[in-house]
Amino acid sequence: MQQKNITEYDKEYEIKDHPSVKGVKIIEGQNNFPISWLNQQGYCEYQLYLENMKGIETQPTPAMTQGSKIHHELEEIFKQDSTPSKFEDAVEASKTEASMSREVTVIAPNYGIRGDIDEIWMKPDEIVIIDDKPGRTPYQSTMNQVRAYCLAYKDMTGEERKIKGALRERGTENLFWIEIFTPEVEKQIKFTIDRIQGLIDGTRPFVPTKNPKKCRSCRFKNNCEHAK
Length: 228
Fold this sequence. Notes:
about 230 residues; Lambda Exonuclease, Chain A; ten-stranded mixed sheet; globular; Cas4_exonuclease; PDDEXK-like_dom_sf; iron; manganese
């Protein structure tokens, strides 16, 4: 499988910062949030409020620091053995010859989401979108994150090939969860994305977790009135 380092995109967007919400951009007149928020939202929506609405800053956890280190190392190794390519050229070429890429940026103004796919396999018969996570447990939040990557990729490309989303144990080749991006899955993730858009525009309330274990390990617990 060819390795292609995506360095260029045909489509360019005018991107502005949201006037009051950290992390949110205005793209094509619509609020656009990072797909990684879906992981955080599944853990505790109130984290999103504390970090991005109230602007509370905390130190990264050891797990976050270690994850970033491994991610950077894998990216540098990949760049050494890959060929630079435009995104659209890689997608078209993959219809006849398989390739893989890392750190592929996807932006879907239609749904107000954007993010960077850890790894993507483009094959003549299918597209496999992979997100690296610590451990081997497919949480609802991490599954939703991959589903949103699938939605954004499909929206960008109009892809008609079968799309699969997968979770991989960080630093290994172990794909511990994989799912076909069916119309039903697409419907479900659109519903969740719409909820977050409601949190951003104030039409829906932020719901804190009711799990005391999550509160005890939360990096925002000292700033949260709901902490247990």
